[in-house]
Specification:
16 helices; 3 domains; homodimer; Alpha-Beta Plaits; alpha/beta; Molybdenum Cofactor Biosythetic Enzyme, Chain A; 26% strand; six-stranded mixed sheet; Maf protein
Chain lengths: 411, 411
């Protein structure tokens, strides 16, 4: 069984938008054990849409189409699909009400364009969109399926996760392919591959290992195949346990959890509070921590001390140490962590100070030099990292490293 | 004249790699006035490559192929193209020397795989690759061109910029297609389309308008076509000016700039400083501001006051107002903005307080309710927004809205 992905929109062809949807969908289908034959990006024209859909239907059982469902006149996907499936657009009451509610909660009224969005092909199943005005649509023809969704990534992902993926899983019956993700942080891919060389050689025949690095975090994906789903699950769990034995410090969690999520769970469980002092990470560390719903149970707040005066006045960093050692130093990182812990009256203080770049580097302290510190009643601890990436990546690595350091101190 | 892009690699289909190459190439071709008909991602199989290349050749004058040129055995693009163009692989001395040098400067010696990379189809023009071992290749057939390059983005970009784009520009002689992007924030696509209905109707025949929404920011793309490049530029500029007349508050910049970049430029130019007090945005607003290199010229720091005690102690928010109006209120937003401005001794204070969700909503203040305030010597100002998205999107919108409000107060 195979699937194809069609992305509609001139903005993709002229390179104004990178088509991240196709990768996300390809990944989701792969997880369901469905082979993606190809993905194609085409223009917003009726002829091109009809041609791509017709060719895909001739080859594959599942077609996923994104884009061209907005309220404006250049969005012609819905009418074109309605023609292709030989049906017609009719006003859909529940879609109308969803659009009305969606706009009402934002203090907006429906205009003609929105009203037109409530017209849906008569023969399709509506996949409700709680995050926008264009619904998803599920068409069936000769035992094959076409799903059409808006191209806005979070709307597409919502419709896929809430509606389309469960329906696909049900409609098509596939042999078991199971995945486990082992989440690691703290080393480089080549180094990790060296450590895990023997582990990989000893894997059972029906299990494979892949490295999925994404700026700092390396996911180890174990794929197991077989007819007995429970047996595959058990075999994968054995391999996960084995990995924990080999790289206990590097593994921070399983199956797609985030470092901030794991850290939050530990803090919550231990009933501990956290305050943060950021310099080079400029809010990125705090924003990761506050991605987690309910983080107010353990996260009290932060001081982003970009300016040295603020390091001194709000965090109590000593001027003489700033002078002597510079803002990017063990001494200043430790004083920031201690200072924020005392100021915000938290159990733990976590700090970052470094040179994110592109400017500000020196021979002694090149761009990417970062000091990270943790402070608690039990004592203070600082560590230095040397990244040599571009600004945004240095900031991200430093934020991850700070969370990783705190996690290791907590477990 | 039209072009097509073919990306080869299973890693794209299963979603491990987002195909950013296609967007970059699409953008480069568009700037040369070449229309991209479609781009397609396919698997590393000979049949699929031959089918895609043959179909593209039947339609389009220029085919750009990336991927499948690495040293490992699953990289079969070169042999397949050699077969397609009915030629054979021969050892290329200059390619061999380039690989040898490339490896030598990294302390490596050539292995068998590298030696094979020096075999190149006899009838193609080599496009040297200074950043890797796989060369680019330029094939011609019946007045049409196919270019094959490695899929590693920086190698592909090097070969395109140094060799392929100048050759393409020379080989094909094209009328100009020009684009302008007008960046807007502050309303929804349907609403914007309503406001711009007359503008769109009155557009000159050779100019078209498209809406490109991405969670809050809507880019308006104007496309102009014609033989005289300067004339097209002038016509587009007239339309840009007209848009500024219709939606002056919504437009924050042109041609892909970010709100944080624009805001930073204004603050720097006016020699003003900024302090931030965040509650619901939890560091996201500050992290956007600090994305900009050199932001320390105007950004002093932030207080992330997730906890009400910190709102009181560090920002001077009155306990009685927290009690009476709640943390998500005009009063508290104003006191936070004023408080951080005084505490950090900056010209401007900017604050956010709201309910990011998923929990914490009430009937009066549902999830997505956000108050934003600006404070300066000239006075204080607060505004309320009702978003009703998921947590991360509410946080993003609130951060963008805060920057947008400050921008409007500054210009």
């Amino acid at each position: 069984m195979q699937a194809e992905i069609i992305s509609i929109g001139d903005e993709i062809l002229i390179g104004m938008t990178i088509d991240s949807n196709a990768a996300w969908i390809g990944n989701s289908l792969t997880h369901l054990g469905i082979n993606v034959y190809q993905n194609i990006s085409i223009s917003d024209t009726k002829d091109h849409i009809l041609k791509a859909v017709d060719e895909a239907f001739s080859r594959s059982e599942l077609i996923i189409v994104t884009g061209g469902l907005g309220p404006t006149s250049d969005d012609i996907t819905k009418q074109t699909l309605s023609d292709y499936f030989d049906t017609s657009l009719v006003k859909n009451k529940s879609v109308y009400e969803n659009i009305e509610n969606f706009l009402a909660t934002r203090g907006l009224e429906m205009n003609d364009n929105n009203v037109r969005q409530a017209d849906v092909p008569e023969d399709c199943k509506v996949l409700p969109n709680a995050l926008g005005t264009a619904p998803g649509m599920w068409f069936e023809k000769e035992g094959k399926v076409l799903i059409s969704m808006p191209g806005v990534p979070y709307e597409m992902k919502y419709i896929m996760q809430e509606h389309a993926l469960p329906l696909i899983s049900n409609f098509f019956n596939r042999p078991a392919i199971k995945y486990r993700l082992v989440m690691t942080f703290g080393t480089f891919e080549a180094k990790l591959a060296e450590i895990l060389e023997d582990f990989e050689k000893e894997l059972p025949e029906n299990v494979s290992l892949a490295y999925l690095p994404t700026s700092g975090i390396i996911k180890l994906r174990l794929t197991g195949r077989g007819d007995d789903e429970d047996l595959v699950d058990r075999i994968l769990q054995e391999q996960v346990d084995k990995l924990y034995g080999i790289i206990p410090d590097l593994i921070y969690g399983l199956d797609g959890v985030s470092l901030q999520g794991v850290l939050g769970s530990i803090l919550k469980e231990k009933n501990l509070t956290l305050g943060i002092a950021e310099s080079c990470t400029g809010g990125s560390l705090s924003s990761m921590i506050t991605e987690i719903p309910g983080c107010s149970d353990y996260f009290k707040g932060s001081v982003i001390a970009y300016d040295n005066d603020i390091k001194m006045e709000l965090l109590g960093v000593r001027g003489e140490d700033l002078e002597k050692h510079g803002a990017v130093s063990r001494e200043v990182a430790l004083q920031m962590a201690r200072g924020v812990r005392k100021k915000l009256e938290t159990d733990f203080g976590l700090s970052t100070t470094g040179i994110a770049g592109p400017g500000g580097g020196t021979e002694d302290k090149p761009v990417g030099t970062v000091w990270i510190a943790v402070s608690s009643k039990e004592g203070d601890f600082a560590v230095k990292h040397n990244y040599a990436f571009k600004r945004m990546n240095n900031i991200r690595r430093a934020s991850l490293a700070a969370m990783s350091l705190l996690r290791q101190k907590l477990v």
